[in-house]
Amino acid sequence: MSWRERLIDALDIETFFIADSEEEGRNLLLNMLKEMGFKDVDLVFAQKRGIGVRVRGRAYIARPGERYPWLEGKSRGG
Q1: SS3 state at 51
Q2: Strands of 52-60's sheet, edge to edge?
Q3: What is the 3-state secondary structure (H, E, C) of 56-78?
């Protein structure tokens, strides 16, 4: 079973990008998550620090309150 099949709700990523502005850091993070194949993504935090931006983002597999396929015995795919 792949990690995508085992991930229940969301993936949080925090990193530091060399960037000139918070906006550039935000865009880098959101684009990275989308390039990883996630469609539902949020920016949680961004802060300009020195030569770059510290960013935290969340990629959702299922948001709270959604119907969870794994509880219904259905495969979520890979």
Answers
A1: coil
A2: 10-18, 52-60, 40-49
A3: EEEEECCCCCCCCHHHCCCCCCC
Transcribe 15-35 into DSSP letters: EEEE-SSHHHHHHHHHHHHHH
- Name the residue with tokens 């550039």: 24
Question: How many CA atoms are closer than 13 Å to the CA of 72, on its beta-carbon side?
Answer: 7
pLDDT band at 78 (very low <50, low <70, confident <90, very high): very low
Whole-prediction pTM = 0.76
Residue 44: pLDDT over 80: yes
Name the residue with tokens 């969870």: 68
Domain limits, the chain: 3-64
Fold entry, domain 3-64: Defensin A-like (3.30.30)
Over its C-alpha atoms, the chain yields an Rg (Å, rounded) of 15
